[in-house]
Write a structure and sequence with these properties.
334 residues, mainly beta, Methylamine Dehydrogenase, Chain H, 5-stranded mixed β-sheet, 4-stranded antiparallel β-sheet
């Protein structure tokens, strides 16, 4: 299969629908569903980002070919609806679509990529409303909405975190302090804080209202790749040092570390009830953790780097994006 991909042969997208047994001793694969896509370029193979609409009826995936793929979901069947041209470039990685986010009301999507643009989309028509530039480097790596949907935050290789008006696309403020690339930036659940992770190994917490620095968290020993707030407000970070660190964002103190990853961590996600933490990265394993105790519940082996993880809004499904034309959809049955 990989040799076929290298010859730029058209491919299939496979959705593995498996059961996640969070308390049982083994993983049982219940069914597999193969979904055919139109002919794809070789550079479609990496699914960098995937996100459910707030009502759970639509899944959107983004790949390194710069395109968005829309899928309808009825609770049992995932159907490819449309492939839409998005981020552009003369050669990879210029066209990479690196991150996407739904507005909380489900009416808009924002995407960012390695072509230096931020794109705001009307979700219903799947059409672009505006294209924004503003980072000083073409590589924009992360986008996340505020809980009220009025703003979104981006992070990029220019070392900045930038806050934007979601309605107009106008810049609101720039948060400066990292001394290298910024890989990830997110709002806290109450919208009062912004957290960011950078190449300088630090996690930085900012006041979302005025952009002032709140904490500089030092605990990673190599690049910090990802930050994510849990539903209870705790902050999780992961990085090249294989660590997942849990922080109290109010005090800046470490709560615990999740040990067991054997390579870089790129993705962190939480079940909607906050009980389970999912992590993934370059060691190709999807790991599920008890959020209260930090205990490893399950390690599910894969075959490619995991770039993105997201739970469905009802918490019953987990989408995992990786390399080699594959993204996986798991079902929780316990």
């Amino acid at each position: 299969m990989k040799d076929m991909h290298k010859r730029h042969v058209s491919s299939m997208a496979f959705i593995a629908l498996a059961a996640l047994l969070l308390s049982a001793p083994a993983l049982a694969v219940r069914t597999h569903l193969d979904v055919a896509l139109p002919e794809e370029d070789f550079y479609a193979q990496t699914v960098f980002t995937a996100s459910w609409s707030p009502d759970g009826s639509t899944l959107v995936t983004g790949s390194r070919d710069g395109k968005l793929r829309f899928w309808s979901w009825d609770g049992e069947n995932l159907t490819h609806v449309a492939t839409v041209d998005g981020h552009e470039g003369d050669r990879p990685p210029e066209g990479y679509l690196r991150s996407l986010a739904w507005s909380p009301d489900g009416t808009k999507l924002v995407t960012v990529g390695f072509d230096g643009t931020i794109r705001i989309w009307d979700a219903a028509s799947r059409s672009q409303e505006r294209v924004i530039t503003g980072h000083d480097d073409d590589y924009i790596r992360s986008v996340s909405f505020s809980p009220d949907g009025r703003m979104f935050v981006t992070a990029g290789n220019d070392g900045t975190v930038r806050v934007w008006d979601a309605q107009t696309g106008a810049p609101i403020r720039t948060l400066e302090g990292h001394t290298g690339r910024v890989f990830s930036a997110v709002f806290s659940p109450d919208g009062k804080l912004i957290a960011s992770a950078g190449q300088d190994t630090t996690i930085r917490i900012w006041n979302a209202a005025d952009g002032s620095p709140v904490h500089v968290l030092e605990g990673h020993t190599d690049w910090a790749h990802v930050v994510a707030f849990a539903p209870n407000g705790q902050l999780y970070s992961g990085g090249k040092d294989r660590r997942v660190i849990v922080w109290d964002p109010e005090t800046g103190e470490q709560v615990r570390q999740l040990s067991g990853n054997s390579n870089s961590v790129w993705a962190i996600a939480f079940s909607p009830d906050g009980r389970v933490v999912a992590t993934g990265g370059s060691d190709q394993n999807l790991r599920l953790w008890d959020a209260e105790t930090g205990q490893l519940l399950r390690s599910l082996p894969g075959s490619d780097t995991i770039w993105t993880i997201e739970y469905s809004p009802d918490g019953e499904f987990l989408v995992v994006g990786n390399d080699s034309f594959v993204f996986k959809l798991y079902k929780r049955i316990s």
